[in-house]
Design goal:
Helices cover 35% and strands 37% of the residues. A hairpin with a 2-residue loop joins β1 and β2. The chain is elongated, with a radius of gyration of 27 Å. The strands form 2 sheets. The chain has a 4-stranded antiparallel beta sheet, with no helix packed on it. α2 packs antiparallel against α3 and α4 runs parallel beside α5.
Length: 197
């Protein structure tokens, strides 16, 4: 019996007691991890194909150790330009051993187990995610002073100018468009803040 399962963004053909090197998992060594994104199961003569995954099927494995792969040299060159860049890379890997393959009756993995199966995100991706996460917070901050504005007119101008100064020019232009202010394409940030307040 074998299964094709997706582990940390890659598809693997796995058999019971097989050792597999996958992208780094966020699970401690010695712990068990379950993968329920099983795409295909072959049980002798019977082949089950998922659409895209097989419901109730599960592959459970044990994390043996975390390690780094062999070094890969990344060399770039442009001839006759004096451009040469040499970089090395060692992929972070996790060695797992497949313990069992369940065809049906497996419970869905909890969010924590499912997230542990994903590979560690690179630093650039986490920075991008952090900036995306802060963007909605700015919008919620915008909404709260507007509620205060209606109750306290004296504080209105101070909080509005503080919020407007924190916003980008593109956001200010969108607000100006919504309010129907004309000639915003040639305005600078200070002009836009003055026009909006």
């Amino acid at each position: 019996m074998y299964a094709i399962v997706e582990i940390a963004g890659q598809q693997f053909k796995v058999v019971k007691d097989q050792k597999v090197f996958v992208h780094r998992l966020q699970t401690e060594e010695g712990k068990k991890v379950n993968f329920d994104n099983v795409l295909l199961l072959n049980d002798g003569d019977k082949v089950t194909v998922g659409a895209p995954a097989i419901g109730g099927a599960q592959v459970s494995a044990k994390v043996l150790k975390h390690l780094k792969g062999d070094k890969v040299i990344v060399f770039k060159k442009k001839r006759r330009k004096g451009y040469r860049v040499k970089n090395g890379h060692r992929q972070s890997l996790t060695e797992i051993q497949i313990e069992s393959i369940l065809a049906s009756g497996a419970k869905k993995a909890t969010k924590a187990e499912g997230e542990g199966a994903k590979k560690a995100a690179p630093a650039k991706a986490t920075k991008a995610a952090a900036t995306k996460a802060t963007a909605p917070k700015v919008e919620t901050k915008k909404a709260t002073p507007k509620a205060k504005v209606e109750t306290k007119p004296a504080v209105k101008k101070e909080t509005a100018t503080q919020d407007l100064s924190k916003m980008t020019v593109a956001e200010l232009k969108e607000m100006a468009k919504a309010k129907g202010i004309t000639g915003i394409s040639s305005m600078k940030k200070a002009d836009l803040i003055a026009a909006l307040s």
